[in-house]
Structure formats: structure tokens, C-alpha cells
Amino acid sequence: MSGMQNGTTNGCKAVERKLNQFGDFEDVTNMSVNDWDYRWSLGQTKFHMPKVHPLLDEGHEVIGNEFVDSACRQFFEEHNIPYTSTPLTGIEGVLYQATDGTPIKLYRCDCFDLSSKLCGQFDCMWDRGGFVALPVKDRTRYARVMADLMKKDGRYLLDCFLVDNSVFGGTFNL
After folding, report:
1. Model-level pTM?
2. 97 pLDDT more than 60
């Protein structure tokens, strides 16, 4: 199946449109929180991992950030991890936290509201889809937030992918 669509309608040439990574023609170059919530409601989460978390499996505490409430709830429910949800103080959002001793927390808030004051600083960070999900114009701002969250000698792994924008539209390229 081709990732492009064009043709004519009533003698007028149609505009060439590109399939996005979700398999439709909607413009996803500036997705909002509501757009991501919509994609979760459709089950369009190809980036969703079936395992709890590789670093958790190695005994590390895992702290995550997510825009979408239903994604946080789904994570804990899929893995049968009991949890609480508590409103965050000072910013709009919720802290989801395991109650069975599993060392995992999810901050459901705008990533630009995260700070070392809110959630501390980290020895290492694994960005698996956050950076590439943002519009290009917001990436420098995002990098500043991530730098604030890392300890001085911290390590940062940016896990991303390259797509062919001549076939697929969207902001998911670096």
C-alpha cells in the first residue's frame, strides 16, 4: 500500500496527502494532549510496550511522564499493579504510584511542567518517545527540562527512530 494519495476530482487536481504513522491522513505535526488522548482511545499506540519496564525488571526505580490519564491507568491495570492517584501540588496533573512496593511512579502532566523540585533529579533517563512526539519548535525547551531533571553526572538515552517523510507525514523525525 502506498503512503501517498492523489488524483483528480471533477477535473480539479487533488492535493497530495501523506499517510501519517497512524495510517490515516490527519495532520499530526502539532499534536496536543487531546490529540494523544484521542489516539489512545482508538488504540493507536504502536509505541506501547507489553512488558512492565525493562529497567524495573533490573531492579531500578522507574519514574515516568505521560500526557494521557487513560494511558497511566491502563499501564497499571494491564500489569495488575495496584496504584493510587493523587493530584499534584502546584501544577495541573496527577501522580500515579504503585501501592504494592513496585518502585514505579507516573507523573500525568505536561512534560514542560516537570521540574527537579517536583520529582527530584535522576542518575539516568531513558526517553522512549517523548522527544520525537513533540513539535520540532518545542524540542529545545524540552531538552532544557530534561537537563534540569538530570544529576550533574547523569546519563541520557534518547530512543528514537527515523521515518521516511516522503512517505509518512508527522513530526516523528529528528
Report:
1. 0.75
2. yes
